[in-house]
Write a structure and sequence with these properties.
Pfam families: GGDEF. Keywords: Membrane, Transmembrane, Transmembrane helix. The chain has 645 residues and is mainly α. Among the domains are: 405-485; 495-644, Alpha-Beta Plaits, CATH 3.30.70. Helix content is 74%, strand content 5%. It has helices at 7-16, 21-44, 58-64, 69-82, 86-102, 106-117, 126-142, 146-162, 166-182, 186-200, 209-222, 226-243, 246-262, 266-282, 286-302, 306-322, 326-342, 346-359, 366-382, 386-485, 495-512, 526-533, 535-552, 576-590, 593-596, 619-635; strands at residues 516-523, 558-561, 566-572, 606-612, 641-644. Strands 2-3-1-4-5 form a five-stranded mixed sheet, with helices on both faces. It is rod-shaped. The relative contact order is 0.06. Bound molecules: guanosine-5'-triphosphate.
Length: 645
């Protein structure tokens, strides 16, 4: 399963004479697990923003990635072919990148993270973006470019902290811690893992204190402080044991065994390493077992039990060869070389070193090359070949200089990165503040505009309401006036109106001594019309009568209905004969009313009593005179006009 191993770690390990590879493998698995947990948590917990970026199937993949990363890769690739949604595609690339990191295939991890990052933007999908960025940082760490990964991890940490995205934060912390460790900044790594440890105690993250305990233990082990590493390994052990997480358990027992050996607890240490190897074989982690063999062999070499040690190393070498783990092959070959040297098998010893040298190709194996050259030089010196030994020492001096330069430039890169990140953060904070201020201003302006708009609308509504009320009132008043002054059926004046008008015109006529003629009119046998043809027909006759009167007389003539079928007409500035002529013409016209209303069978005729102002009579007297004349007209047979006196 292990095809490639982290070269950068080996550089540091070699320098310090400490074999970190086993731990780094352990941390790769652990990181993969943490990533899974982190991603899974991203699906589950609502406080992680923009969670809808994850496809529904992500949960299953993220669970499986810890045990079977290759299966997850196959399944995700199949889904990726079908998927069209950009954010889902990006999410799948994030899962793929992490799965490849779990398989320690950093170049593929890097490629998938980049593909995902090409699909999202930091402003639109910040959570997804930073998850991909941390995945890329992890792949960069594995590719021997921790300096480049540092910036991404730090940015993600800052963002996650600011937005309280705890899962992302704990994941970013774990990756950032490993990056610091790769860069030999152990204080930073320790501080980061301890922060992660505290964060995980809040129970808001699926990453548990036990996970961070194993990372902290790793740093102490790296710093050759096994007494400090031991309690943390123990805590991690308890956690993995309780949760039956076998791979991490095997790795943690390995850590315990190594720390115990370092502390001189030989039997305990060897027993733990043996247990770790057994557990690793149980779960098919052959390399896990090989790491234990290698450490056990080292202990046996120190004790002079060379043949037992050689047996372990031979097994370990076969496993590392199968896995193409060049770094560990070199380590094992150096251990075998130590045995051969002790047994004075110089030729065999040289062959082993040549084999190791052939494997140590590339810049990342610089520390290995130096170690091999040193061994070779010692060997040549033992064989009295001082010239060759001297040449090798010269070469080593140049190699060490190169290594120093490399380390310095890496440190510089890290410092530069840290500075750039901090600068970027400060700039972001400033921009955020400006944005907030602008947003507040905009909000206030919008509020004010809304208030103004609301007031204007309210005023408009009030105006419309008032106008509506005014018009309604006016119409109502006009209607009331019309009802009071105009008879609804005939369109003539009402009794009240025509009598008031008569009083008024009578006074004018008396004052100005102008003629005024008054007539009382009554439809003949109207009861009969009602009785024989219905009340509606009677109404139609009255209506036609009114219309005819309005059309026949002048506008200055006053026409009013004073009873059911009784009418008072008076004619200002008109003398009796003139009025008589008008009334006669009108009464003749009334005979045509039956035709007007489509009732030709009817007989409509009018009787009228007419009188003229001759003295200073009162309205009452004039009315009485007209009434008397009308009575006479009725008595004389109706359909006629009688003048009085
Ligand atoms: N259709 C209708 N009939 C009305 C209205 N006002 C009064 N009348 C009727 O008019 C009739 C008047 O009858 P009378 O007073 O006996 O007078 P008349 O039948 O015309 O007889 P003379 O006046 O003697 O010729 C009554 O039957 C009333 O009911 C009205 O607005 N519409």
């Amino acid at each position: 399963m292990y095809v490639w191993f982290r070269l950068s770690i080996s550089t540091q390990c070699r320098l310090r004479g400490f074999n970190m590879s086993k731990y780094k493998m352990m941390t790769r698995w652990l990181t993969a697990g943490l990533v899974c947990i982190s991603l899974f948590k991203g699906v589950v917990f609502a406080d992680e923003s923009t969670l809808n970026a994850w496809p529904p199937s992500a949960q299953r993949f993220l669970k499986d990635i810890r045990d079977e990363p290759q299966d997850v890769i196959n399944a995700v690739q199949a889904e990726l072919l079908q998927e069209q949604r950009t954010t889902y595609r990006a999410a799948y690339y994030a899962i793929l990148s992490r799965a490849y990191s779990a398989l320690v295939l950093p170049h593929k991890g890097l490629d998938r993270a980049d593909k995902g990052l090409a699909l999202v933007t930091e402003s639109l999908h910040p959570w997804l973006y930073h998850n991909l960025a941390v995945a890329k940082a992890e792949a960069l760490d594995n590719s021997g470019k921790p300096g480049e990964g540092k910036m991404l991890a730090l940015s993600a940490r800052n963002w996650a902290e600011e937005h309280n995205a705890k899962e992302l934060l704990s994941y970013a912390m774990s990756v950032d811690g490993y990056l610091s460790l790769t860069l030999s900044a152990t204080d930073d790594a320790l501080a980061t893992f301890q922060q992660g440890y505290t964060l995980s105690q809040s129970n808001d993250t699926l990453l548990q204190p036990g996970d961070f305990a194993s990372m902290i233990a790793l740093v102490y082990e790296y710093r050759h402080e096994p007494e400090l590493a031991l309690p943390y390994f123990q805590e991690a052990y308890d956690y993995y044991q309780a949760n039956d997480i076998k791979l991490e358990l095997a790795n943690t027992i390995f850590g315990l065994g190594k720390a115990n050996l370092d502390l001189g607890n030989r039997d305990t240490g060897l027993a733990q390493l043996k247990r770790s190897a057994e557990l690793a074989l149980e779960i098919g982690d052959l390399q896990g077992a090989a790491y234990s063999y290698q450490v056990m062999a080292q202990q046996l070499i120190d004790e002079g039990k060379l043949s037992s040690a050689e047996a372990f190393l031979t097994d370990a070498l076969t496993i590392f060869e199968d896995a193409d783990n060049r770094f560990m092959q070199i380590n094992v070959l150096l251990s075998l070389n130590a045995i051969a040297s002790q047994q004075s098998q110089f030729a065999y010893s040289l062959t082993l070193l040549d084999e190791a040298q052939a494997l140590a190709e590339g810049e990342a194996f610089l520390p290995s090359k130096i170690a091999i050259n040193e061994r070779k030089a010692q060997l040549f010196a033992t064989m009295d070949e001082f010239e060759k030994a001297y040449q090798l020492m010269l070469i080593n001096t140049a190699l060490k200089n190169r290594l120093n330069q490399e380390q310095n430039s890496q440190r510089l890169l890290e410092l530069k990165t840290r500075f750039e990140v901090e600068q970027q953060e400060a700039q972001n904070a400033l921009l955020r503040e400006q944005n907030l201020r602008q947003q507040a201003l905009l909000l206030n302006e919008q509020k004010l505009q809304r208030y103004i708009f609301a007031v204007v609308v309210l005023l408009l509504i009030i105006c419309l309401l008032l106008a509506f009320l005014y018009i309604g009132g006016k119409r109502h008043q006009e209607r009331l006036e019309r009802l009071a002054n105009e008879d609804e059926l005939t369109g003539l004046m009402t009794r009240r109106k025509v009598l008031a008008q008569f009083e008024h015109h009578l006074q004018l006529a008396q004052r100005h001594d102008t003629p005024l003629t008054l007539a009382l009119l009554d439809l003949d046998y109207f009861k009969k019309i009602n009785d024989e043809h219905g009340h509606q027909t009677g109404d139609a006759v009255l209506k036609a009568f009114g219309e005819l009167a309005r059309n026949t007389f002048r506008r200055t003539d006053m026409l009013g209905r004073i009873g059911g079928e009784e009418f008072l007409f008076f004619f200002p500035h008109t003398d009796l004969s003139e009025a008589q002529t008008l009334l006669k013409r009108f009464s003749v016209a009334c005979r045509d009313i039956p035709f007007t209303i489509d009732k030709p069978e009817l007989n409509v005729s009018v009787s009228a009593g007419v009188t003229m102002l001759s003295d200073n009579q009162s309205a009452k007297v004039l009315m009485a005179q007209a009434d008397e004349a009308l009575y006479q007209a009725k008595s004389e047979g109706r359909d006629r006009l009688v003048c009085a006196p």
